[in-house]
C-alpha cells in the first residue's frame, strides 16, 4: 500500500510517492509530512525515479536506501538546479510534536567510494585521464602515509574502512529552542568540512560544516571533503529540563539490499573482491564488520550510473561505488525507542524534484 504526499520544499511543491509503513517526519516551514523510509538508489531491480522535467513530475520510490553518494553524480546539476551535493539534516520535534529531549551527535567520517583496487592509491573512476584513458589519481596514501595517518593508518593500511570520529558535536535542542532543525551542506564539496579547500557553506549557521578541530591533516580534510561521507552517528539523548543523560547509541541507516539483508541486490560486492579478499572495516566501540561497495560488473562500459530524469527506463542502472559497513541493526540501529512515546531514527529523505541525487542523511527525534 502507498499514498501520494505533497512535500513543500523552499516554495516548490513536488509530488512524491511515500510508503505507508514510513514513520519519518520532518519540519519544513512548519509542515509535518511523512517521508520514505525505504527507497531508491541502490536496488537495480527497483531503484525508483522521478520522471518528467521540473516539479510535479510523476515518480515513485524504489526499494530501500535513498543514499545520495554516487561517484558519478558528485555535484550534479538536474533540471537547472546546481550544487546538488549531499547534505545532512537534524531535527528534534516541531510545533505539533514537542519532545522532552535534547540531542548531541558525534559523526564518524570516512572515504565514501572504492576504486576496485586496495593499493592505497585512490582513483576517481568518474574522471578519466585524457592521455591514458584511465581513472585519474587523487591521493597516494600508501606512498605518503604521514599525510593520511587517520585514513591510512599503519595499524590498518587499507584504502577504505578507516573512520575518523569528528570531535566537535552537533547539538540539536528540542523545539521550539533555536536550532531544533539544522542542515549542514556545501555548494562545492561532497562532505561539508570546515576549512576545506573551496568550501562554500550552503547553510552557514549554526554549523557551516563538520568541524574536525585540527585532528586530521590538511590532505585528509580535503580528501574527505571531496570524496567522504558520514557513516555513523554516536547519538546522545538528554532530558531537556534536567540535562540528565537518557540514551547513548551508535546509529547507522538501514540497508536491506546488502547480502545479509532481506532484499539482496547483487550489485553489492565485497571490498577488494577482485583480488579474492574481503576486507573488514573497524568501527570504534563496535568492532570490525564486512565492507561492501556497489559495483555492478554486469553493466556495459563505462559502467556508470545511468540516470535521466526525463527517461525512467534508464533509472534502473546504478553503479555508485559507494562503500558501506554490513553492520547488524542490533549493533548499530537505525531506530531506537527512547520511551513509550518518543524515538530517534537515522534515515534518508529527498526532494521530489531531484530524488536521491540531493538526498540527506537524516537524524530525527520524534514521536511518530
Widest sheet, order of strands: 13-7-22-21-20
* Uncertain residue ranges: 1-41, 51-56
Strand content: 25-35%
**Strand tally:** 22
Describe this structure in words.
By secondary structure, the protein is mainly β. The chain has one domain. The protein has one helix at residues 218-227, and strands spanning 2-9, 12-19, 24-28, 31-35, 48-50, 59-61, 87-92, 101-111, 121-128, 135-140, 164-165, 170-172, 181-184, 228-239, 245-251, 268-270, 280-283, 287-294, 323-325, 335-337, 343-349, 360-366. It has a 5-stranded mixed beta sheet, with no helix packed on it. A hairpin with a 3-residue loop joins strand 17 and strand 18. Mean pLDDT is 81; it is low at 1-41 and 51-56.
Amino acid at each position: 500500500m502507498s499514498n501520494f504526499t505533497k512535500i513543500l520544499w523552499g516554495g516548490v511543491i513536488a509530488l512524491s510517492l511515500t510508503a505507508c509503513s514510513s514513520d519519518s517526519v520532518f519540519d519544513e516551514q512548519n509542515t509535518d509530512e511523512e517521508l520514505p523510509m525505504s527507497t531508491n538508489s541502490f536496488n537495480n531491480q527497483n531503484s525508483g525515479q522521478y520522471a518528467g522535467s521540473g516539479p510535479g513530475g510523476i515518480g515513485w520510490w524504489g526499494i530501500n536506501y535513498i543514499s545520495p553518494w554516487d561517484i558519478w553524480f558528485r555535484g550534479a546539476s538536474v533540471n537547472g538546479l546546481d550544487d546538488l551535493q549531499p547534505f545532512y539534516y537534524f531535527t528534534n520535534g516541531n510545533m505539533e510534536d514537542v519532545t522532552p529531549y535534547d540531542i548531541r551527535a558525534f559523526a564518524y567520517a570516512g572515504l565514501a567510494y572504492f576504486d576496485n583496487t586496495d593499493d592505497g592509491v585512490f582513483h576517481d573512476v568518474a574522471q578519466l585521464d585524457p592521455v591514458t584513458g584511465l581513472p585519474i589519481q587523487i591521493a597516494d596514501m600508501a606512498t605518503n602515509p604521514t599525510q593520511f595517518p587517520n585514513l591510512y593508518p599503519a595499524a590498518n593500511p587499507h584504502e577504505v574502512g578507516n573512520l575518523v570520529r569528528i570531535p566537535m558535536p552537533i547539538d540539536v535542542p528540542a523545539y521550539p529552542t533555536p536550532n531544533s532543525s539544522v542542515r549542514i551542506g556545501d555548494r562545492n564539496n561532497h562532505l561539508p568540512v570546515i576549512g576545506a579547500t573551496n568550501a562554500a557553506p550552503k547553510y552557514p549557521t549554526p554549523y557551516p560544516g563538520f568541524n574536525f578541530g585540527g585532528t586530521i591533516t590538511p590532505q585528509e580534510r580535503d580528501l574527505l571533503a571531496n570524496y567522504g561521507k558520514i557513516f555513523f552517528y554516536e547519538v546522545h539523548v538528554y532530558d531537556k529540563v534536567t540535562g540528565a543523560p537518557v540514551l547513548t547509541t551508535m546509529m547507522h541507516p538501514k540497508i536491506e539490499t546488502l547480502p545479509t539483508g532481506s532484499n539482496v541486490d547483487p550489485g553489492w560486492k565485497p571490498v577488494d573482491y577482485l583480488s579474492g579478499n574481503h576486507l573488514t572495516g573497524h568501527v570504534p566501540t563496535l568492532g570490525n564488520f564486512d565492507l561492501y561497495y556497489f559495483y555492478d560488473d554486469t553493466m556495459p562500459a563505462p559502467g556508470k550510473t545511468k540516470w535521466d530524469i526525463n527517461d525512467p527506463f534508464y533509472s534502473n542502472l546504478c553503479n555508485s561505488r559507494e562503500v558501506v559497513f554490513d553492520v547488524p541493526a542490533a549493533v548499530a540501529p537505525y531506530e531506537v525507542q527512547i520511551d513509550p512515546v518518543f524515538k530517534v531514527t537515522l534515515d534518508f529523505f529527498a526532494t521530489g524534484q531531484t530524488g536521491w541525487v540531493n538526498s540527506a542523511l537524516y537524524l530525527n527525534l520524534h514521536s511518530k
